[in-house]
Amino acid sequence: MNLLVLYLLLLKATVTSFSGLTSLPVIHHDLVVERRVLTDRELNAAVAAGRAGPGPYGLYVVSVGYFVAGVPGAFMGLLALMTPAFLIIPMARYVGSKANQPRIRSAIEGVLAAAAGLLVASTLPLARESVTGAFSGAVALASFVLLTATRVDIGWVMLGAAAAGLLAAAL
Amino acid sequence: MPVVRLREMAWIFLRIGNLTFGGGDPIMAAFQRELVERRRWLSPDQYALAFALARVTPGTNVLAFCAAAGWFLRGWLGAFIAVPAATVPSGLLVIALTAAYEELQGMRLAAGAIGGLLAAAVGMMVAAAWNLIRPRLVAGNRLRIAVLTLGALVLLLGFSASPLPVLGLGAAAGALWTGPLAERQMREPS
After folding, report:
1. Shortest CA distance from A80: residue in chain B
2. Which domain holds residue A8?
3. What residues of A are in contact with residue B71 (Cβ under 8 Å)?
4. DSSP B172
5. pTM for this one?
6. Which of A66, A93, A131, A132 lies deepest, with the highest CB count within 10 Å?
7. Are residues B78 and B23 in the same domain?
8. SS3 state at B31
9. ipTM over 0.95
10. Given an 8 Å threshold on Cβ–Cβ distance, is B95 in contact with A92?
11. Which range of residues forms the domain containing residue B20?
């Protein structure tokens, strides 16, 4: 498949979605059903690969690109993933230019409070999957306490969590 | 706030974007920690703005967040550095994971380490929420912030509302019910 066409198809999927995996139906339709350059099994493996590593779940698009056209295809996926991100800048410029008006500032504070609620709410699906017992509960609690009560670097928290998980699996 | 050096900025986006497991939300929580709490490169307002606008930007939220944060710090150049820095290494890792997918499934130790990282991400997100609102909990503003935050939480969990309308409602409620902190100035991007 032509790399430019692949980029445009993947871009179509990323630009019409608003979070991680909502681009999935578009990709399924275009690449699996219409053009038959990807199988359902490969698409499932791509989603799993995107979730197994660090970074956003949306990275599965890179894996899709890899299945369709190897490493060059993977780079098309990476480009398609990054392209829409820059659309935020005109919006940030516009709102930022109004941000010294007290009412706009007050609205931003309302957004900030809602964002805090949103962060807590989006913890739940992750918690259901990963906080399954006393050990993982202790890791989650330790992470919360370290990040609210101390100024410790977040890298140490993650390294410690990975080491603890490794140790628990080895014992 | 100081001018942020590009190399330092690239390093933070590289580190946070590529070492945080669990998808976009934990990454945005980790950025709250590094950019707002520890380094004070972004004001909480700028963070909230980037967070909310990232939700209405097409594509992957956290990458739009990186573009806005990079732009606040160093303009367009900052954005063009922040987005690839946060994406390319984990993208390369995804290629490797795809190539080795079948073999990786049976690895118990790797699964243990990732389990630890995901559990830590849960604590990290609640911590980020608390750190975000904590500076706003000053006299005369506590009830307002508590109502807005818990109201959002109830809508999301109790009524399964989708995030975008909740953020919009937060903006509207915040604009109508003004607080005592609204007179402070917001920094322009350098």
Report:
1. B59
2. 3-130
3. 88-89, 92-93
4. H
5. 0.78
6. A66
7. yes
8. helix
9. no
10. no
11. 6-104
